[in-house]
Amino acid sequence: MATKDTGSILSRLPGVDALDSETRDGVLFALPYLLVFGVFLLYPLLKGLYMSLFDWNAFNPSQSEFVLAENYVRMVQDPTFWAAVRATALFVILTVPTLVGLGLVLALGVSQDIKGKRFLRTVFFSPYVLTVSVVSLIWAEMYAPQYGPINYYLGLVMSNPPAWLNSFTFAMPAVALATIWWTVGFNFVILLAARQGVSERLYEAARIDGASTWRAFKDITLPQMRSAIVFVTTVQLIASFQVFGQVFIMTNGGPNDTTQTLVMYLYRVAFRQQEFGYAAAIGYFLFVVLVAVSLVNYKFVGGDD
Amino acid sequence: MARKRQGVTPSSRRTFIKVAGAAGVAGLAGCAGDSGAETGGSGGTTTIQYWTLFAGGDGEAMKTLVDRFNEEHDSIQIERQRQPFDEYYDKLFTSMTGGDAPDLAVFHAPQIQRFTDALTPLGGMLSDGAADAYVDSIWQETEFDGDQVALPLDTHPNGLYYNKDIFEEAGLDPESPPTNFEELQSAADTITAETDKQAFSPDPYLRFFVRQFIAWQHGSGGEFLNEDNTEAAFGDDNGVALAQFYHDIANEWNWDRADTTDDRGTKAFRSGDLAMTINGTWYYGVLAEQDFDWGMAKPFVAPDQSAPQTWANSHTLGVPNSGSNQEAAVEAAEWITQNSLEWGTEAGHLPAAQSVLDSDDLRSSNVWEKTLSTFSDMAQNDELSYMPSTENNENYTRPVNNAISQIYSGQLDPEEGIQQAASDVTDNLQG
Amino acid sequence: MSTDSKTRFTIPKPKTVGLYVTLYGAAFLFIVPYLYMVSTSLKTEDFAFSQQPYWIPPEITFQWYQAVLQGAPILQWLINTLVIAGATTIIVVIIDSMIAFSLTKLDWPGKRIVFTVIIASFMVPIYANMVPLYTIISDFGLLNSPLAVILPFSAIPIGVFLFTQFFKDLPDSVIEAAKLDGFSTFQIYLRIVLPLMKPAIAALSLYTFVYTWNQFLWPLIVLQGETSFTLPVGIVTTQPTQVFQPGAEMAVTLIAAAPLFIVFLILQEHLVNAVQMQGTTG
């Protein structure tokens, strides 16, 4: 701004032309993303609401029948829907605390002064780059009742090992375990970075004060890592609420719908039963739940950073 | 998709074979090319998109047919697109709503009704005498509201497959498989007592229970659905007794493990750990690869089969009405369904074309001796039960498969379970 | 790290032993599924169907790899996945950096509202949207086209969010100086902002690439024909053929996992950075 170059000074004057050009450039630069965003994210969001009010005719949308809240009423009365809600909740409860907790434990462990940090990090993080179908196929083989390794070793120590993916009790925990193997690495590396960002001086000061390891963890580690923990918890909640591939491939919702989660039910209603209107209503329910969950999570756990 | 539970319709896709005896078949390839109307190539070549759900032995056999068609035709070329079995009808549905439908597609007979609105009636486009070219009973399976909407390719019923080596090991006569419930009971009990093998499983995939359930329900004099397919009829005494049978197999008599993890039974049968199971025509190709000796018999082994029946289904070829190459697609469909020798000799199905069914090539083949003669016998005796056609067959397949799966694995009371399934099916059909 | 902890090299404390046992024990358990995949893919049918697991197959065969490569258009799927993941990554980096530049460094009316709307939709799950989105894609005639996956995944706002965090830290004086030198807005974006933002761009690229590469449900819905599948969808569809051959199943799994896994081993530091960046800016 110190320069005396007249041309530049002129262009800096708050004239109408200059303002227009910055506005024009600003809009032009924003436009490509806004276009994609509008057409493929916002518009479907609105159209979903619209569709959910119709008995939607997939072959011939113009013949769809307006039914107001009928799809939502049906949803509330649909036992399969509520079974899907329960299955989803169970999956969330089984996975989210474990994924965050185990991620934290591994991160704290690897951040200690030990040999082979890089190796450990590679191992814990590596499953994250696999696709869900790979993970599901491997674990389905591992769980196989008669020819799988898990039940072979269990069979050596117990007489009747569970039929993992076929059991009311164990199917969901089995899917959850495979999921934990798959994605705990994501939380692990984020929490590791957060732990390494905590200043060692804080710990030293605590040590001089004679604080126990537990106190140091509670008073230094947790508060210092809070924003990272909130972040992985939120990401994990959203991911777990939308679980699909694992159950789709490993159990297809069985036995008897006990692992049929919301997104799976949504897929079935839409593309197997061809009821787009009802499926859109279920999608909206999922949307509202997820927004509520992330808001609550940020409000309660997160504070405002 | 490997691990799915819906028993929509049967599949020969559940096979994994490198085609046995392909050499013997290749020699026949040249001699069956007399399809009628060869349209002159005025506008060059029409390429039609053809969707199938065949893999394994069926996939190979269909490839053989299509390759032969393409070799013998200049004006029409078929492009085969293989689709995943479990998602096949979902994908077909989405492609039709999206206006991106194939020109020609395979349909299982009971699935046609769901798609009739989107299929072309074939009437005017068929060549003369087409109706007479097919086995009459199968021809009628492809007629809806007076319109012919598909051409039948085959019939594929269920049979009882058994491992002769295990029979011998148990001291049973490997040439006399059980023909009724009492004989099944004595054979299975003997195998359970004398060997460490599993004796019997009514569905090796452990997820398509509904197929043979319907047949056995008919066989004991019961009905599966009411006459106009609006209500379940299997919650009666017959159905409950049958459910009890499924329960007892794994939980009372220890003929099998009480575990319905997908495909466990077929793994066991193929690795020689299971003595008897019930499966479709396509198992011929799979078992040709195994190194034990096996046989096949009629599967009338449930209790009280006074009017024995076995499950059957048909692959048919339909022409979606959004396509622009309908004439060509119909011609291709006629040719494939009427030149289907390999569909019998390689894939093991009963061809629907009368001339192929009667041909010496088929009758003198190994598959005829091993399995097809028995299947053909059951077809002649009217012992085949097709699954009912409804708006969406998942409405009844899913509740029944779910219930029997739980009953079989000992997680559900047979009577309560089957009656609950019946009431669910009724709700679905009326909902 | 204090000095005495470095000079202490006598007997490890039991606590340290416990730490090693726990971490390396966990690492071993993490590796087991890989071992099972590799060893099963090399087993002959007899050993694959054996009830006793052979971790080192007594007899090694490559027949499953051969069967799988011949039986399914795996190369085609690999190319499709590469095209979809690559194109999405390029589009995301370009349009996200453009709008982030506009939102942080340019002044125009309404940009606050635009920014708020984008950030608010941060949490919109694409799966909750799948039915309306499907009808839109279908109306555009995009079913079965790679664009059916590329476009919706380019709309996800996470990159906008990440870039705005980074661009904020870019001093305004740099931009002012460039303006004084007569740079147009586009030149500033191309020659000043992008080069300075390389680490953020690298991070977002890697993350987007891996994320898109691994998508399953959406490609399953919109990609119809066998020849247009991606690897994650394709390998599941081959299973009915091979389902009774654990060897073939594990071979196809390994083939599908290999490309990205190798990339991961090479670019590990960057990928870890990419993921960590989200956690620390988010």
From TrEMBL, chain A:
Membrane topology designation: Multi-pass membrane protein
InterPro entries: ABC_transporter_permease (IPR051393), MetI-like (IPR000515), MetI-like_sf (IPR035906)
Protein name: Binding-protein-dependent transport systems inner membrane component
Cross-referenced Pfam families: BPD_transp_1
Source taxon at top rank: Archaea
Major localization class: membrane
Family: Belongs to the binding-protein-dependent transport system permease family.
Gene3D superfamilies linked: MetI-like
GO cellular component assignments: plasma membrane
Gene Ontology annotations of biological process type: transmembrane transport
Native species: Halorubrum lipolyticum DSM 21995
Keyword set includes Transmembrane: yes
Annotated localization: Cell membrane
Keywords, in A-Z order: Cell membrane, Membrane, Transmembrane, Transmembrane helix, Transport
Record field: transmembrane: 27-46, 81-110, 122-144, 164-194, 228-249, 276-298
Sequence ranges assigned to domain ABC transmembrane type-1 in this UniProt record: 85-297
Automatic annotation (TrEMBL), chain C:
Transmembrane segments: 17-36, 74-101, 113-137, 149-167, 188-210, 248-267
Keyword annotations from UniProtKB, A to Z: Cell membrane, Membrane, Transmembrane, Transmembrane helix, Transport
All residue ranges annotated as the ABC transmembrane type-1 domain in the record: 78-267
Subcellular location per the Swiss-Prot or TrEMBL entry: Cell membrane
UniProt GO BP: transmembrane transport
CDD domains per UniProt: TM_PBP2
Gene Ontology terms: cellular component: plasma membrane
Topology class, membrane: Multi-pass membrane protein
Family matches, as PANTHER family: ABC TRANSPORTER PERMEASE PROTEIN MG189-RELATED, ABC TRANSPORTER PERMEASE PROTEIN MG189-RELATED-RELATED
UniProt record similarity statement: Belongs to the binding-protein-dependent transport system permease family.
Record's protein name: Binding-protein-dependent transport systems inner membrane component
